[in-house]
C-alpha cells in the first residue's frame, strides 16, 4: 500500500501526525450487538457550516432495515472525500433533499442530524429477507450514496446492490480508502468514457488532477488496461505517479500547463478532475474525428439546483451540457460529464483488480474515530496525496 509520509518515500502516517491539536470528545468502545441497542455513537451535523458544526453523539438512532434488499454493516473503517466537505457546508442540499423526500411528505430540515462519510469497509451484521448474496459475518465494502446517512458511525445501512465483498488482500483500513473514488473513476472512465480492458490498450490517456483520490485510482485503472498515461500534478507528487504507473508526469506549476501539453502527441481520452479554465483548452488536445473523449467530474448540476431551484436548475443544467456536447461534437470530439454511481457489481470488478495487484490503495493519513474533526481539517487544507481514512473501531 502506498501512502505519503513526511520523510522520504511513501509510508503510512499515524493519526498523531495530524498536526491540529484538538481535545477529542469523550469516547467509549463500540458495542457489537445490533439487536440489543437502539442508539449508537456517530459523528453528525445539525446545521450546515464549517468544522465547528461536527458533533459527536452516543445517541444517534440505530439504522433500521426498511427494504428487504438492505443490509446493516458494522463499520470498521471509513474515509473522507471532498464531497464530505461540500455536504458539511450545504452544497447540493436542494438536490439531495429532493432525493431523500421526493414527495415532500416531511417537514423542513429532515436531513438533520446528518451523518457524513461515504466509504465503508466492515462486516455484515444483519440482512433483509431478500438478500441472498451476503450473510452476517461477511467482510464487505461499499460507497453509500450521498442522500443516505453516512459511514462516520458505528453501523450503516446499505442496499445489497451497493455492497461488494471486500478485497481479500486488504485490511479494512486500506479497503475503506477505495470505494467512492474507485466508483467515481469507474463511472468516468468506463461507463461514461467507454474505456475497458479490451479497447484501452495503447490509447493515450491524460489525467488532470492525478494525485487526489480519484486521480490515483484512475491512473492505476487505465494503466492496468494497457493505456499510455500522462498525469498532471505538482512536482512533489511525481514520484507517487511514477510508482502508480504513469508514463509521463507533467508539473502544472512548471510554466504554462497548456503549452507543456501541446508539445505532446494528441490524446484519445482526457479525465479532468480540476475543471475551471482547463475545460477551455483541454479538448484541443484530443485527436479529432477518432472517437476521442473528454470527461469532466466538475459539473454545475448541484450548484444550479441550489441557486435556481429544482426545476430551473435541471433545465439550466440540461441546456449547458447539451450545448457543450453539440459544440464539441461538431469539432470532432466527445464532451461528457460524469458522476459517482453506487454499484456493488462495479466494486466486484474493482476488487478483482485489487486482489490481482493491479490497483492498490493510496492513503495519506489515518485518524481514529475520536479524531474526525482533525481529519476534516486535514482534508480541508488540500494537497492530499491519496485518501484520509478513519479507523472507526479504534478506541483511541
Mean pLDDT: 89
**Helical proportion?**
25-40%
Under the CATH scheme, the architecture of the largest domain is Alpha-Beta Complex
CATH topology term of the largest domain? Quinone Oxidoreductase, Chain A, domain 1
What percentage of amino acids are in beta strands?
A: 15-25%
Spans of at least 5 consecutive residues with low confidence = 4-29
- Count of domains: 2
**In DSSP terms, counting alpha (H) and pi (I) runs of 4 or more, how many helices?**
12
Shape: globular
The value of Rg in angstroms is 21 Å
Distance between the termini: 23 Å
For the structure shown, list the relevant keywords:
396 residues; alpha/beta; Quinone Oxidoreductase, Chain A, domain 1; Rossmann fold; eight-stranded mixed β-sheet; six-stranded parallel β-sheet; 17 strands; globular; neurogenesis
What does this structure look like?
The chain is α/β, with parallel strands linked by helices. The protein has two domains: 39-178 and 362-391, Medium-chain alcohol dehydrogenases, catalytic domain (Quinone Oxidoreductase, Chain A, domain 1), CATH 3.90.180; 193-337, NAD(P)-binding Rossmann-like Domain (Rossmann fold), CATH 3.40.50.720. It is 29% helix and 23% strand. The chain contains twelve helices and 17 strands. The chain has helices spanning 82-88, 93-100, 172-175, 179-192, 213-224, 238-244, 257-262, 278-282, 301-308, 310-329, 344-355, 372-381, and strands at residues 2-3, 39-45, 54-61, 70-80, 114-115, 119-127, 139-143, 155-159, 163-165, 204-208, 228-233, 248-251, 269-272, 293-296, 334-337, 362-368, 387-391. Strands 1, 4, 6, 7, 8, 9, 16 and 17 form an eight-stranded mixed beta sheet that branches. A six-stranded parallel beta sheet has the order 12-11-10-13-14-15. The longest helix has 20 residues, at 310-329. It is globular and about 60 Å long. 46% of the residues are buried. Mean pLDDT is 89; it is low at 4-29. Belongs to the zinc-containing alcohol dehydrogenase family. Quinone oxidoreductase subfamily. Residues 49-390 form the Enoyl reductase (ER) domain. One of its GO terms (biological process) is nervous system development.
Amino acid at each position: 500500500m502506498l501512502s505519503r509520509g513526511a520523510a522520504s518515500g511513501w509510508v503510512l502516517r499515524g493519526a498523531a501526525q495530524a498536526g491540529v491539536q484538538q481535545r477529542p470528545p469523550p469516547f467509549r468502545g463500540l458495542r457489537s450487538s445490533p439487536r440489543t441497542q437502539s442508539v449508537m455513537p456517530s459523528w453528525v451535523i445539525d446545521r450546515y457550516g464549517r468544522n465547528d458544526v461536527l458533533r459527536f453523539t452516543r445517541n444517534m438512532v440505530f439504522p433500521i432495515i426498511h427494504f428487504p434488499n438492505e443490509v446493516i454493516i458494522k463499520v470498521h473503517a471509513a474515509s473522507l472525500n471532498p464531497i464530505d466537505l461540500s455536504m458539511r457546508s450545504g452544497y447540493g442540499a436542494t438536490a439531495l433533499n429532493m432525493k431523500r423526500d421526493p414527495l415532500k411528505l416531511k417537514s423542513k430540515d429532515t436531513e438533520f442530524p446528518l451523518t457524513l462519510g461515504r466509504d465503508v469497509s466492515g462486516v455484515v451484521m444483519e440482512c433483509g429477507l431478500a438478500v441472498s448474496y451476503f450473510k452476517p459475518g461477511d467482510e464487505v465494502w461499499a460507497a453509500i450514496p450521498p442522500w443516505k446517512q453516512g459511514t462516520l458511525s458505528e453501523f450503516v445501512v446499505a442496499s445489497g446492490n451497493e455492497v461488494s465483498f471486500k478485497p481479500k488482500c486488504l485490511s479494512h483500513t486500506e479497503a475503506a480508502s477505495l470505494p467512492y473514488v474507485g466508483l467515481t473513476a469507474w463511472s468516468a472512465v468506463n461507463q461514461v468514457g467507454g474505456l475497458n480492458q479490451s479497447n484501452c490498450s495503447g490509447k493515450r490517456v491524460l489525467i488532470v488532477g492525478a494525485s487526489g483520490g480519484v486521480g490515483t485510482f484512475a491512473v492505476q485503472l487505465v494503466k492496468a488496461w494497457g493505456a499510455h498515461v500522462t498525469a498532471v500534478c505538482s512536482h512533489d507528487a511525481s514520484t507517487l505517479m511514477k510508482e502508480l504507473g504513469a508514463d509521463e508526469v507533467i508539473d502544472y506549476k512548471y510554466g504554462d500547463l497548456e503549452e507543456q501539453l501541446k508539445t505532446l502527441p494528441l490524446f484519445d481520452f482526457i479525465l479532468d478532475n480540476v475543471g475551471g479554465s482547463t475545460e477551455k483548452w483541454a479538448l484541443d488536445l484530443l485527436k479529432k474525428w477518432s472517437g476521442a473523449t473528454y470527461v469532466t467530474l466538475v459539473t454545475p448540476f448541484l450548484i444550479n439546483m441550489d441557486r435556481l431551484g429544482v426545476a430551473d436548475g435541471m433545465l439550466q443544467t440540461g441546456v449547458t451540457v447539451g450545448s457543450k456536447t453539440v459544440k464539441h461534437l461538431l469539432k470532432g470530439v466527445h464532451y461528457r460529464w460524469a458522476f459517482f454511481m453506487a454499484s456493488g457489481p462495479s466494486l466486484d470488478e474493482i476488487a478483482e483488480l485489487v486482489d490481482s495487484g493491479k490497483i492498490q490503495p493510496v492513503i495519506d493519513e489515518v485518524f481514529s474515530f475520536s479524531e474526525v474533526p482533525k481529519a476534516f481539517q486535514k482534508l480541508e487544507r488540500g494537497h492530499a496525496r491519496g485518501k484520509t481514512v478513519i479507523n472507526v473501531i479504534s478506541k483511541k
